[in-house]
Each structure stands twice: as structure tokens, then as C-alpha cells.
Structure to design on (600 residues):
């Protein structure tokens, strides 16, 4: 049996479930973790410098730790050669179990290398902090995925453990609390659901937070007993069409209620294909049309996914997975989105419209992690596929998101052209609901080109339309642009007011787009730095906390850069490491300009 390495929680090595003698040195655990979690083989000289730089013989000290690991594991060929890597099947590492669901629920979410803190190893300390953040985010996403899958399969009792674990790991994550409450209700434990809701409300009030209506509604059993009718399948299909038409006409409440009835009738019909279609329509509506309903929408879409698989409808499976990935990206669950998008691609076949949609969400997911060059390639491919398929709105959407990545990657003219192309298609299609996004990005391009008056006019029009639409994301983006334009115009008071307003607008719903919220937070930090140095530290701390919670590496790096610039020199190495790989030339330049060799 393969030796098992537990790096989550207190580290240990096991042989058929029995603990092996631990390594004698703490740095041996550090060596094993660095190699096991590395995306590429690690050179001995690089690792020796990172962990044993103060030793008289760094390479000799590394050799001792490697021998220590071989003794502990009982594997004499472990970690030989240069560079160092684990041979396939040589060791089972629990962190990898976050990818294939092989990790027990109680281990998911534990701290990486719990209790291991090394002195005089700043490079490893930086790596460990970022790796812990990554493992924590992936753990929360894995628990949510397991709970949703079990709940959708009708195994609500089994879903209690992962949902409860996720809720306990992050008590202020409203989405995790909502899912736990829904699981308890579905498992017939309504009393416990009410108790947990009450404890959440107390905790939120203590933190100055107001629970959303979605959290309270989760404690109510939504299942209705359908009245006996004939030909339920036919009725369900008709109701899906009627509900979708109502949504297209802007009658959101009526459309959603009609789709709820469609789901009930589809359940009576007993046909998996009809159930999948109805649940797909309702789940998509809850995510896109009803603010604060992403939690319920995810549950419905997971049920749709099971039905679509049972009906052998691969294209529908792919589209449902794409919708689930979109909700994950908006919430900052990037690893979960990756998993869904990979599977969606496997089921998409050669349908260009479906491929265009999957590529678009992949691009959005890469962009939100600061991988703007990769995102630009995916979004360009998505827009081209959408043109071939004749799906104009998808083309406009992909071009609009492409404009963002090009702008942040420092490619001003291509970004401006992408925004203009998106706006042109939106005008032609009369798709006003999306127009503020490319318009705000176009305004930012104009501002960077020094065309300030034109930029202000664009941003004002975008804000007015966003308010008319009532979209928190668009309102926040437009108000942010107006705040930075006011700052350039020499009115810091107006700038601050616009940015506070922007934050309130984009954060007024629990299922907000976390990237936009962080983008506003970065603008607040920029404004604070230009006006009062004393405001930088708290603003940077807020952005750092938000970036960690939402798995947003680009904003994490910005927060660290500002903290280092404001005098926290212990953050210099961490800021440079966090900025490495982020395709943002402004961020890279600021990180490189930080002073070296200083300590707080």
C-alpha cells in the first residue's frame, strides 16, 4: 500500500493507517511539503537556499533532511535526484485529495503544516502563508461541492457533515451558513436549522452585519405538494416556456414563480429530461435574475445536473456545469469553477455556441486570479466561436470581459477596441442589461489615455443606466470610475464619497461579484494613499482580508504592496512573491520597487 502523507493538520506519515516514526527535524516537513505541492520539480540549490541559507553547508543540510524523510517513510528511494519531485504513486498526499474528493470531511479545511513555523526562513514563510491560503480556499470549495452534490442526490443526511464543516470553518460566510441551513431543513431537522439561523443572526449582529432575506428563507421548507393533474410533462414544458418568456420580458417575479411550478410538474412527470430542463431554467433564473438567490440556484442546478446525466443529455450537462462555474467565479470559488469547466468541456462536443460560453467563463475565472494573458486568449477564442455560432450576446459578453483583462495587462489600445466592439454589439442587439460593463471599461481606457472629459461623460452615462437597471455590480463599477475621476480632478472629498457609495452598492447583496467589490476596495486604498498615509494601513488590511476570503491573488498582492510601502517592511518579500505571475505591469513595477533587505 502506498505510504500516506498528511500535511493538513499536524503533519504525519502513515503506513496502512499506522503512523510512521516522524522526521527528526521540522525542516524535513518543510522540504516534503515544498516538493509535494510544487507545480514543477524543485532544484536542490533553490530549496537549500530557501530553507538552509544560514547553514555552513546548505546543500549538506538539505541532504540530511532528505535522508531524514527516507528513514521516516521507509522509502529509501524517496526524493532522489536533482531537481526533486515525487514519483507517480510513490506517496499519497492528502492535499491532492482536495482534487479527487478522497479526503475525509474532518480533514478538509485543516491548516497546512499545522504547528510548523520556521525561524530565519523568510522565503519558506512566504510560500507557506500563500499555500495555506490556497489550501483553505480549496477546502471550503470542496466541502461546498460535496454538500451540494449529496443534497441534490436526495442524501441530505449525509450532506450535514460537509455543510456543517464548511459553516464552522468560516462563520461569517453567509453562503456557507445558508447551505447548512438548507441541508438541515432537507434532512428533516428544521428545529436545528432555526437554532443555527438564530446563532448566525447573533454573530452577524455582533459584527455589524445584516443577514440577507435568503438566509432567513433557507430555514423555511420550500417544497410544496403539487395538486393532481393530468399530463404533467406537457404542462411542465409549457410552464418552462412561459416562465422564460416572462423573464425575457423583465417580469422576474412572475417568471420565477412560473418556473417553480414547472419544476413541480416535471417532478410529477417522472421524466429526467423534463426535470433537467425545468430545473436548469429555474436555477439559471435564480442565479442571474434574482439577487441574493445564488445559494438556492446552486441547489436547483445540482439537481438539474443529476437529471441531465440520467437522461443522457451531454450538451445540457455541459451548460448546467457552465452555469454552476459562473456562480462559483462570481463568489471567488476558482478551484471549484475549474473542476466544473473541465467537465463541461468534456461534454460539450463540437457545439460552437456551448464552447463559446465555456471558454468565456474559463477566461473570466483566469482573469479574476490575475492571469490576464491566459484570460485574453480564452476570451478572444470565445468571441470568435460566438461569432461563428451567431450568438451575438455571448460575443458581446466575451469582448467586454476581454477588455478588462487587456486593460489590467497594460494593453490600452486593444482594451479600448474590445470595449468598443462589445458596446457596438450590445447596441445592435439592444441588450441594455449588459451595456454598463463595457462602457465603464471604455471610460477607464479613455482616462488612461488622458481623455478625461470623455471618460467622465462615459462613466456618468454608465452609472445612470446601471441605476436604472438596479444592478449592484454595474453600479459599483461605474461609481468606482466616477470616484477615481473625481480624485484626478482634485476633489478628494467627492472621490471618497463616490467610492463609499460604490462599495455600498456592489455589496448590498450577499451573492455579489467579489472581484468588483475588491476592485472598489483597491480604488479606496489608492485614494487613501494619495490623501493621508495614516489611512493606508486599515484600508490595506481590509483589502487583504477580502482578497484572502475570496481567493483573489491580484488584490492580495496589491494589499501587501501598499502595506510594505507604508512601512511594514516585513511584507516586502511576501508582496514580491504574491505579485509574481500576476499579469499586471503596474503591480509588477510597484513590487519590484519595494526596498530590499529590511525588517520591521
Amino acid at each position: 500500500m502506498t505510504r500516506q502523507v498528511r500535511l493538513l493538520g499536524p503533519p504525519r506519515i502513515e503506513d496502512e493507517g499506522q503512523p510512521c516514526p516522524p522526521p527528526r527535524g521540522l525542516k524535513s516537513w518543510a522540504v516534503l511539503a515544498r516538493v509535494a505541492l510544487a507545480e514543477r520539480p524543485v532544484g536542490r540549490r533553490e530549496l537549500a537556499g530557501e530553507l538552509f541559507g544560514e547553514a555552513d553547508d546548505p546543500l549538506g543540510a538539505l541532504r540530511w533532511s532528505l535522508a531524514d524523510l527516507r528513514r521516516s517513510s521507509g522509502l529509501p528511494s524517496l526524493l532522489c535526484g536533482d531537481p526533486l519531485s515525487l514519483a507517480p504513486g510513490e506517496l499519497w498526499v492528502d492535499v491532492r485529495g482536495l482534487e479527487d474528493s478522497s479526503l475525509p470531511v474532518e480533514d478538509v479545511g485543516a491548516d497546512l503544516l499545522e504547528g510548523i513555523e520556521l525561524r530565519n526562513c523568510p522565503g519558506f514563510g512566504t510560500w507557506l502563508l500563500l499555500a495555506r491560503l490556497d489550501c483553505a480556499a480549496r477546502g471550503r470549495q470542496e466541502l461546498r461541492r460535496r454538500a451540494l452534490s449529496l443534497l441534490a442526490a436526495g442524501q441530505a443526511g449525509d450532506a450535514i457533515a460537509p455543510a456543517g464543516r464548511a459553516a464552522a470553518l468560516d462563520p461569517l460566510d453567509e453562503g456557507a451558513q445558508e447551505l447548512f441551513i438548507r441541508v438541515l431543513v432537507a434532512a428533516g431537522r428544521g428545529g436545528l436549522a432555526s437554532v443555527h439561523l438564530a446563532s448566525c443572526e447573533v454573530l452577524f449582529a455582533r459584527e455589524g452585519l445584516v443577514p440577507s432575506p435568503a438566509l432567513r428563507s433557507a430555514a423555511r421548507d420550500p417544497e410544496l405538494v403539487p395538486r393532481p393533474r393530468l399530463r404533467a410533462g406537457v404542462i411542465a414544458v409549457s410552464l418552462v416556456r412561459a416562465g422564460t418568456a416572462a423573464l425575457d420580458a423583465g417580469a422576474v417575479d412572475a417568471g420565477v414563480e412560473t418556473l417553480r411550478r414547472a419544476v413541480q410538474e416535471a417532478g410529477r412527470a417522472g421524466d429526467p429530461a423534463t426535470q433537467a430542463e425545468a430545473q436548469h431554467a429555474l436555477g439559471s433564473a435564480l442565479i442571474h435574475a434574482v439577487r441574493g438567490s445564488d445559494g438556492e440556484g446552486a441547489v436547483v442546478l445540482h439537481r438539474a445536473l443529476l437529471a441531465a446525466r440520467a437522461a443522457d443529455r451531454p450538451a445540457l450537462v455541459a451548460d448546467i456545469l457552465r452555469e454552476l462555474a459562473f456562480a462559483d467565479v462570481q463568489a471567488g470559488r476558482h478551484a471549484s469553477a475549474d473542476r466544473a469547466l473541465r467537465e463541461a468541456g468534456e461534454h460539450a462536443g463540437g457545439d460552437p455556441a456551448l464552447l463559446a460560453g465555456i471558454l468565456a467563463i474559463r477566461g473570466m475565472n483566469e482573469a479574476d486570479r490575475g492571469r490576464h494573458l491566459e484570460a485574453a486568449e480564452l476570451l478572444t477564442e470565445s468571441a470568435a466561436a460566438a461569432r461563428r455560432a451567431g450568438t451575438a450576446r455571448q460575443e458581446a459578453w466575451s469582448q467586454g470581459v476581454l477588455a478588462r483583462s487587456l486593460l489590467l495587462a497594460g494593453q490600452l489600445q486593444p482594451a479600448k477596441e474590445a470595449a468598443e466592439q462589445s458596446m457596438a454589439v450590445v447596441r445592435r442587439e439592444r441588450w441594455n442589461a449588459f451595456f454598463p460593463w463595457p462602457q465603464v471599461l471604455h471610460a477607464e481606457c479613455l482616462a488612461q489615455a488622458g481623455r478625461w472629459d470623455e471618460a467622465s461623460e462615459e462613466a456618468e452615462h454608465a452609472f445612470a443606466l446601471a441605476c436604472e437597471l438596479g444592478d449592484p455590480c454595474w453600479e459599483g463599477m461605474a461609481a468606482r470610475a466616477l470616484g477615481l475621476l473625481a480624485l484626478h480632478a482634485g476633489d478628494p472629498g467627492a472621490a471618497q464619497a463616490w467610492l463609499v457609495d460604490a462599495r455600498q452598492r456592489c455589496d448590498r447583496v450577499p451573492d455579489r461579484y467579489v472581484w468588483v467589490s475588491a476592485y472598489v476596495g483597491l480604488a479606496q486604498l489608492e485614494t487613501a494613499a494619495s490623501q493621508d498615509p495614516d489611512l493606508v494601513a486599515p484600508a490595506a488590511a481590509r483589502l487583504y482580508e477580502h482578497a484572502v476570503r475570496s481567493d483573489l491573488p491580484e488584490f492580495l498582492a496589491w494589499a501587501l504592496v501598499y502595506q510594505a510601502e507604508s512601512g511594514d517592511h516585513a511584507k516586502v518579500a511576501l508582496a514580491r512573491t504574491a505579485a509574481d505571475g500576476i499579469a499586471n505591469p503596474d503591480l509588477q513595477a510597484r513590487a519590484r520597487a519595494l526596498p530590499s533587505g529590511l525588517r520591521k
Notes: The two ends are 48 Å apart (CA to CA).
